[in-house]
Amino acid sequence: MAKIIDGKKIAAKVRADIKERAATFASETGVVPGLAVIIVGEDPASKVYVRNKHRACVEAGYRSDIYEMSADTTEAELLTKIEELKADTGIHGILVQLPLPSHLDEKAVLEAIPPEKDVDAFHVVNTGKIMLGDYSFLPCTPAGVMKMLEYENIDISGKECVIVGRSNIVGKPMAMLLLHANGTVTVCHSRTKNLSEVTRRADILVVAIGKADFITGDMVKPGAVVIDVGMNRRDDGRLTGDVDFDSVEPVASAITPVPGGVGPMTITILLENTLTAAKESIGK
Ligand code: NDP
């Protein structure tokens, strides 16, 4: 039986610590961390994510501004909004909720956010810094995974770490963080041959592909730590991960559930990054 890694519990502890540090910082400097989130269009999943971010900010005592823009917003209008927020000294983090409607150039929009307010760490400058291991903003989801491993005292050094998925927001930065922590890292993707042979080598298996229940027990080495980043909606509306929990849980030594695993950690790191941005904005 695997240990269930409780993301909600870990996130609550980390958020309490962030809240305390943010309050101390505010009382010493008069600066309250501020996050602005822009959402374009009506995507229901995005609306839920934005609401959760807003709630987390309010609970942490942050300023939280939400800008809801219509689905037919032009790129020029969106860039103007980003310019306004760039100039707002009370806003330390700017986040544009993805995905954007297809007529908007995601890359151009993300590059318009100044690196010092890019709390999602998607700007090319921050991506480059992550590669070099010299960064202030943590990539939210991968850093959330690292925090969970730290809380569970799971040693990474020298371990076989296999990541399934190579997206710019999860798989690639995850590989970098595990590498910086001295893991031996393999990244798999849709062209990987004999995937289950590779996943069965993993001491630490991180899965981020966006396919419900894809990783099954026979693909996992007995005693592995399995981190499920996936968030997929079943036909009945329930959330499920990329890992088939029922068949993997008896094989693994530790596993994250979905929901209640990686998800709550991602927003926690966003709070941490916003506090970092606020501190750096006044040279602290
Ligand atoms: P992307 O769609 O951007 O990337 C998916 C990756 O999985 C690609 O690299 C793709 O390979 C790979 N892949 C797809 N099918 C297979 C397959 N059959 N075998 C091996 N690899 C495969 O997804 P994201 O990284 O953005 O997200 C992944 C999942 O994580 C989603 O469910 C998403 O909702 C969730 N997520 C959860 C977050 C959280 O906070 N918990 C945050 C962000 C994402 P290729 O490159 O070859 O196409």
Overview features:
284 residues; alpha/beta; three-stranded parallel sheet; 10 helices; globular; binds NADPH dihydro-nicotinamide-adenine-dinucleotide phosphate
Written description of the protein model:
By secondary structure, the chain is α/β, with parallel strands linked by helices. The protein is built from 10 helices and 11 strands. It has a 6-stranded parallel β-sheet with strand order 1-11-8-7-5-6. Strand 2, helix 2 and strand 3 form a beta-alpha-beta unit. Helix 2 (44-59) packs across helix 10 (262-281), helix 6 (140-151) crosses helix 7 (171-180) and helix 6 crosses helix 10. The longest helix is centred in the first third of the chain and has 23 residues, at 7-29. The model has no long low-confidence stretch (mean pLDDT 97). NADPH dihydro-nicotinamide-adenine-dinucleotide phosphate (NDP) binds at residues 141, 164-167, 169-171, 188-192, 195, 208-211, 229-232, 262-263, 266.
SSE topology sketch:
Blueprint: E1 3-4, H1 7-29, E2 34-40, H2 44-59, E3 63-69, H3 75-87, E4 93-96, H4 106-112, H5 124-132, H6 140-151, E5 160-164, H7 171-180, E6 184-188, H8 195-199, E7 204-207, E8 225-228, E9 232-233, E10 239-240, H9 245-248, E11 254-255, H10 262-281
Parallel strand pairs: 1-11, 2-3, 2-4, 5-6, 5-7, 7-8, 8-11
Antiparallel strand pairs: 9-10
The structure holds NADPH dihydro-nicotinamide-adenine-dinucleotide phosphate (NDP).
Residues 141, 164-167, 169-171, 188-192, 195, 208-211, 229-232, 262-263, 266 line the site of NADPH dihydro-nicotinamide-adenine-dinucleotide phosphate.
